[in-house]
Amino acid sequence: xxxxxxxxxxxxxxxxxxxxxxxxxxxxxxxxxxxxxxxxxxxxxxxxxxxxxxxxxxxxxxxxxxxxxxxxxxxxxxxxxxxxxxxxxxxxxxxxxxxxxxxxxxxxxxxxxxxxxxxxxxxxxxxxxxxxxxxxxxxxxxxxxxxxxxxxxxxxxxxxxxxxxxxxxxxxxxxxxxxxxxxxxxxxxxxxxxxxxxxxxxxxxxxxxxxxxxxxxxxxxxxxxxxxxxxxxxxxxxxxxxxxxxxxxxxxxxxxxxxxxxxxxxxxxxxxxxxxxxxxxxxxxxxxxxxxxxxxxxxxxxxxxxxxxxxxxxxxxxxxxxxxxxxxxxxxxxxxxxxxxxxxxxxxxxxxxxxxxxxxxxxxxxxxxxxxxxxxxxxxxxxxxxxxxxxxxxxxxxxxxxxxxxxxxxx
Amino acid sequence: xxxxxxxxxxxxxxxxxxxxxxxxxxxxxxxxxxxxxxxxxxxxxxxxxxxxxxxxxxxxxxxxxxxxxxxxxxxxxxxxxxxxxxxxxxxxxxxxxxxxxxxxxxxxxxxxxxxxxxxxxxxxxxxxxxxxxxxxxxxxxxxxxxxxxxxxxxxxxxxxxxxxxxxxxxxxxxxxxxxxxxxxxxxxxxxxxxxxxxxxxxxxxxxxxxxxxxxxxxxxxxxxxxxxxxxxxxxxxxxxxxxxxx
Lengths: 411, 246
Fold this sequence. Notes:
The complex is a heterodimer.
Chain A: H1 2-17, H2 19-25, H3 27-54, E1 61-65, H4 78-82, H5 89-98, E2 102-114, E3 116-117, E4 127-132, H6 136-139, E5 144-147, H7 152-156, E6 161-164, H8 166-172, E7 182-185, E8 188-196, E9 201-202, E10 206-207, E11 211-215, H9 216-223, E12 230-235, H10 241-255, E13 267-270, H11 271-314, H12 316-324, H13 329-366, H14 374-401, H15 404-409
Parallel strand pairs in A: 4-11, 6-8
Antiparallel strand pairs in A: 1-12, 1-13, 2-4, 2-12, 3-7, 5-8, 6-11, 7-8, 9-10
Helix pairs in contact in A: 1-13, 3-11, 3-13, 3-14, 5-10, 11-13, 11-14, 13-14
Chain B: E1 4-15, E2 18-30, E3 35-39, H1 46-53, E4 61-66, E5 69-70, H2 76-86, E6 87-90, H3 102-111, H4 117-130, H5 146-158, E7 164-168, H6 176-191, E8 195-200, H7 203-207, E9 211-216, E10 219-224, H8 226-236
Parallel strand pairs in B: 3-8, 3-9, 6-7, 7-8
Antiparallel strand pairs in B: 1-2, 1-4, 4-5, 9-10
């Protein structure tokens, strides 16, 4: 133990004696580790963010849709997908009526890039207008900040009412209470009955607060009835989620008359299936990052090898003195190996700090969500000490082999 | 029992294709508490003999018993342990670690003995006090005079309480006044009972030792009281009587 502490303090002493030289040597390791930490922070941030965003779907909810959701890897036959029949409000009703494992189901349809106005203000043409059935508040995990959500009767009668996202509300009614006021969508008036709780952006890109929700029937009369709706289905509980999906799948295949051996002509997506594709993507990026990192660590390792050979040559006399005074081979070996490991660990630590810095910078300037996973830090430290050990052992062995008399004669 | 017992020790080096016989059958006995000078011209084998006695090198043939143990055939690590426990070295060029303080330099052999930091510090401090450097402990070698550096080296040699103090031209890099100071310190150590072996090419130094051996071409050619051996040395090589250039 005492020997280890002695070696450790010697190693730090050497580092302090040549700080610039040591830092330059460590550049490879610093870059390698910083790359890993930054990339892992980005990927982990993306994953955490996506998981959280998607869980806003609501608990135990899955989605039935005409179009595939999320990030798609590999080829899909988009022409064939576009020929699929639309999902309808009748499908929603059928699911509620015939699937015992589903407690409720909502339908929704959306139009991007809409402009919403009042008599005195208007938004940019970037508002997301969504038509929803009343169950949507449950299946999408909607919470209302003020007022109320859209009701059953309003949907049936296609009444001109609207719930605003907080960004739209702030834009159109700055400093005023929007409830009871009138907004215009496509030149048709809607009375504001509620404002949504702020939810933020999905992946930092898609703004969930810049939207307007209308009753489904109002939406359809505004934008036309010939469109496919998305259906969110809520299962009784987490355990019956798969059972509910199977019931829905069977029901939909029957309703859409899909032949027995054909694949589904609709998509069923859960939080898990959407994150799965993302996880696959992140694995590819992780593997590529590791390639880059291993390369930099190799360069860093050769730097360590070089600087340790220089150190052994420079300190031949010191090694001779130590051996003359009774240092065993193993002890000299340990001293120089410790030095190499400490050197590369310092590089690793700087790399980790740099990685954290870059991750913060990314969050700050680009608004990316980043989170450095603990395992990436542990892995970086393990890898850099491994590099130190691997590339430090040869110079250390050379030091240990020196003949004390010869070594003390060196200049 | 003798502390040092050399029996027909030879040491042959291979330099390229030639073999150089640096020691050709040296027999020598040194008892505990003796102060012995080894004199001889450069190339006479003095340094080789000192390296063998100091366990920095091993004999090619013959037998070397130190403190009753045969050390002729020990491994490098075993020799390192013997050096650490039995021998204190004082070198002509001091051989101090330049980056370390006087105290840390004196602690060094105790580091390799595996002592804890506190005990090391106490013993090193006591050794530095013994050589009257208590007020220079925190200084690095380049902040010390030559004589002070050599006293640090002597403190480092004494700190392990070795059986044998080996000094190789300890005054070679010092001016005569400082050299005298170091020799006085050796005389004092001798009076305290230390066994001292002094390698030197200066007959005047050898003359002050109770016993001296003279080496020539790898063999001991005389062995007797320091004064006699030194005189004999002077007769053979009058150049040595010339005053020092300094």
